[in-house]
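Quick one from the shared queue. A colleague (R.T.) flagged SMI1/KNR4 family protein as missing a structural entry in our internal table.

Convert sequence to structure tokens.
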Amino acid sequence: MWRLLIGELYPDAEFFEPAKEALFWRIEETLGLPVPLELVELLRETNGVWNEYGDAVVWSAERIVEDNLAMRSEADYRELYAPFDDLLFFGDSDMGPQFAYVHTGYGPGIVVWDHETDERRLAVVSLRDYLVRCLTQGNDWFR
């Protein structure tokens, strides 16, 4: 399902081996947040998605764990930014804004986070919408 959608949106897409199932449990255990089913399903088909500019639109499962841990444990980040405890970062755009699931009382949504201002705002409500925008509208759709 995800490979088909990605291939339609971005015919030059490269696909990777699926993520190992154990990594989904590691993400949840390590970060204390559930991994949204849509993200699990995508990573079961391809362990990451990159756009034509080389941006990691969806990070690999390994990078999700590593980057989220780093952002939560980096002393400078704790001083500069509001806590990341309710965010599950999974992608970025052009070395700038990063994207994360935020868990709310209404279910997960996807926010864009600006590291310069610490602004966090709802970008889209589903992974499908996120991929459509990232893979068809380039790097500026979220501004």
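The mean pLDDT is 90.
Residues 2-140 form a domain with the SMI1/KNR4-like fold (CATH 3.40.1580.10).
Added to the table.
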